[in-house]
Design brief:
The two termini are 35 Å apart. This protein is mainly alpha-helical. Helix content is 72%, strand content 0%. It contains 14 helices and no strands. Helix 3 crosses helix 11 and helix 11 packs antiparallel against helix 12.
């Protein structure tokens, strides 16, 4: 009979405890979101006292007019992450596979975008948006999200690409393949796990992003869903807390579903970079 060693037992215990602590806020959101408004006293509920999740969701969704912001976030997250990852893979191919000078300088110029706080870009982007009449439009958020996601996508795809054998590119050259043919037909399929991992990260980032959502848009027709949630929070006195929590819980589901759907590629893309 196998016996657990003390070290493994202690490690498993710590992991389980940390997981339970991490799950407490999510548990409280779920329990309070399904609590009937008539049973809610204003204090957090620790145990279910009924199931009114769908009623609370309908109330919150209608009060916050969430349909447009929800569709906006789907557009921003899908386009922003997708375009950024494709551009990042092209940049990684140019830096790793093609004979480019000053590769280290180019790497840091692109990757430095992830090192600066988002607040640094707020005022210049606001002024540029007003000057170009893109302020409070969908286009400005798509452009900003693509720009913000390229550095991390570049970091992931570039690190994946440097692990590929150089003989692959040499064999393609001997067969007469051009750079674009090499990228599309050979390296793009190979680097797909890293691209999917970067897409999942950036999709979740854009979906949960709030700062630029409220600083570059003001109308409900263009705001992302998290901006609508924040607006609804400020109207908390007019809306019950279970309705707010039920709506916030549902609008968080797309990010979870994207992670679960791409989990296999996500793990493969990240572990190859380790």
């Amino acid at each position: 009979m196998n016996r657990l060693r003390p070290g493994i037992l202690a490690r498993n215990t710590i992991v389980i405890l940390l997981a339970l602590i991490w799950a407490v806020p999510t548990y409280l959101v779920i329990v309070n979101a399904m609590t009937p408004v008539t049973s809610y006293t204003g204090s957090p509920v620790w145990w279910p006292s009924g199931f009114a999740l769908f009623e609370n969701l309908a109330t919150g969704w209608e009060a916050g007019s969430f349909t447009a912001p929800f569709l906006n976030s789907l557009l921003y997250a899908t386009l922003g992450a997708g375009i950024a990852v494709i551009l990042a893979a092209i940049a990684a191919f140019g830096l790793v596979i093609m004979p480019t000078k000053h590769k280290r300088l180019w790497f840091w110029l692109i990757y430095a975008g992830t090192l600066l706080p988002l607040q640094v870009f707020a005022l210049p982007l606001y002024q540029a948006g007003v000057a170009t009449e893109l302020y409070d439009t969908k286009m400005i958020l798509i452009i900003v999200y693509v720009a913000l996601c390229i550095p991390f996508g570049f970091f992931v795809t570039r690190n994946f690409m440097v692990t590929l054998p150089p003989e692959i590119g040499q064999a393609a050259k001997i067969d007469g393949a051009g750079w674009w043919r090499m990228f599309v037909s050979i390296y793009l399929p190979l680097v797909r796990p890293a691209m999917v991992a970067a897409f999942v990260f950036q999709f979740i980032f854009i979906w949960n992003e709030l700062f630029f959502g409220i600083s570059l848009t003001i109308s409900i027709e263009n705001q992302p869903v998290m901006a609508a949630v924040a607006t609804m929070q400020t109207q908390g006195s007019a809306l019950s807390q279970p309705a707010i929590l039920a709506t916030a819980l549902i609008v968080s589901l797309p990010a979870v579903l994207v992670f679960l759907f791409f989990q296999r590629f996500f793990v493969a893309g990240l572990t190859t970079n380790l």
